[in-house]
Amino acid sequence: MIRIAVDCMGGDHGPAVTLPACAAFLARHPDAQLALVGRPEALQPLPAGLVGERCSVVPATEVVAMDDPVEVALRRKRDSSMRVAIEQVRDGLADAAVSAGNTGALMAIARYVLKTLEGIDRPAIATQIPNVTGGATTMLDLGANVDCSAEHLLQFALMGSALVAATSGRARPSVGLLNIGEEVIKGNDVIKRAGQLLREAAARGDLNFHGNVEGNDIFKGTTDIVVCDGFVGNVALKTSEGLAAMVGTLLRQEFERSLYSRAVALLALPVLQRFKRRVDHRRYNGAALLGLRGLVFKSHGAADAFAFEQALARAYDAARVRLLERVRAGIAHAAPLLRASPAGEPAAS
Amino acid sequence: MIRIAVDCMGGDHGPAVTLPACAAFLARHPDAQLALVGRPEALQPLPAGLVGERCSVVPATEVVAMDDPVEVALRRKRDSSMRVAIEQVRDGLADAAVSAGNTGALMAIARYVLKTLEGIDRPAIATQIPNVTGGATTMLDLGANVDCSAEHLLQFALMGSALVAATSGRARPSVGLLNIGEEVIKGNDVIKRAGQLLREAAARGDLNFHGNVEGNDIFKGTTDIVVCDGFVGNVALKTSEGLAAMVGTLLRQEFERSLYSRAVALLALPVLQRFKRRVDHRRYNGAALLGLRGLVFKSHGAADAFAFEQALARAYDAARVRLLERVRAGIAHAAPLLRASPAGEPAAS
């Protein structure tokens, strides 16, 4: 039995999306239980699929708004649905927590409530990005850390490797370091030193380091994992979202331009729908917050019920394969290297 | 009469691409002249369009290879076509130089031969990226500078503004600072300080600062110009290239999947071709190296003749509107602010 605590109030749509997603998730996962966290009156009436033994409502009086500053979420809203969901994990009442709320607040509360794992200075956000091979590339960090040291990048690589090994079944997933060229001499000082640390870690058998990769390798699927600082990762992800949106808009415009193109669009519908399914980022919704003493997953704030259900499934899978123990083991294996590195704050930049 | 010095040996294809592009360019620009720089025997036979008064061959005995280290290109190949083309600009024999060669070598040689403008610590690479409005977003820096200070980002913003004002005719093009959120408090220390400097510059009338933008704004066309450091810019551009390539591959695969989809593809051809034309990055080939005492443009190494011709046209347009004087004027306007800032090397990172 795996139990997930769900922040039902988070995201752009709140219970209107999270509750139907929870019902669909439960129907597909017979050994799952859900703790539905939120303001009890906002969760009524519960959909039929959420009434029964595998579901309970855990009351929380407050809600973290999408635009609440981190300090407000952390210090003033101590009974928020986001925090109560994470406390369920801390108290052993749930195996993982899922929220579509404000990312900064979620990370801050998760870090405060759960604390980081030994050997990890900063948690990171890891997500999957579909690539041309039909699989997905796992990328981290995606915005939690705007300034990173080489040591932080090594920690991200270890955590990402544990995540992919646990959830994909690949024993030794490959790690690429995001850079502006493949050669070892490329990049700024932090990146060059991170490359060196990753090579040392690979030599010790801590991970499988491929070397530097470039932005286009994310979509080529050159490596299973791409490691970068949160600033670069966030820009790469948002840039991709922007380009994908533009491609969708332009395709639509061209297929709507004339009577002829509209007729062709009807005929091409099955083809275009297959294409759309293959690039549907909703299938990959659910980013892992790694490096904490508990499993927390972040759904996109704008997720619909289908997408939010994927985030729930991702949290469920991570709990089922005991991701937390795998991450701990990965870090423990690299402990000598991590201890040798100056921890704590990164160099100014 | 505008005269462009062309490094005919550069790029993945050399004269096989550059010479036909030069011929097509001359045919379309009756008041242009070309200096064709390269190994004379490699430029024979000249296409018919390149024989005549508006064209001359300027011999250079060496060629910078695409994988030559910067030091080799700069110190050992002193008679390379790349260098001789840039020297034509330095010596007043050409109004601009264009090369499809190795970016690192081109930047190093251009900087060495031409020197930077007063008030500019480091040249930057600016390119245009098509956006959903049908126009293009000008982005800089794209790889020349992997570590930037806030002052460098201000310099990029001033140069980008001068470029867009000169070539688009918009008097006050808007500048966005690439960040991981719109709020002023977002980003690392360099970005926050750059935001402050840009606001000061805007208050002084040096430029039109919109504020922070995110990765997706590049393709939305939220601002005319997007400013970032070269590491982030390179990753964003390469990531976009990777996603665009994936979209192309998946669309092709889906339209080739079955007899039905192949038949639909034939019918959809005019629609798909219009779409393709709208996202055709070749139309935007030709990045400006800004901040030098002379105009230099960089073509994509893999450019075909159509793309290389666009780079020539871009250099021609820049010379025609006296881009160099515009950049100088923009910098001079902001001189008090630039002088007040600590110049030189950026903070370690």
Any idea of the CATH topology of the largest domain in chain A? Isopropylmalate Dehydrogenase
CATH class of the largest domain in chain A: Alpha Beta
- Give the mean pLDDT of chain A: 92
The helix count of chain A comes to 12
CATH architecture of the largest domain in chain A: 3-Layer(aba) Sandwich
Largest sheet of chain A: 11 strands, mixed
Give the H and E element order of chain A: EHEEHHEHEEHEHEHEHHEEHHH
Which chains make the largest contact?
A-B, 59 and 59 residues
Shape of chain A: globular
CATH homologous superfamily heading of the largest domain in chain A: Isopropylmalate Dehydrogenase
Total number of distinct structural domains of chain A: 2
Oligomer: homodimer
Helix content of chain A: 40-55%
Pathway (chains A, B): Lipid metabolism; phospholipid metabolism
GO cellular component, one term (chains A, B): cytoplasm
Pfam families (chains A, B): FA_synthesis
Keywords (chains A, B): Acyltransferase, Cytoplasm, Lipid biosynthesis, Lipid metabolism, Phospholipid biosynthesis, Phospholipid metabolism, Transferase
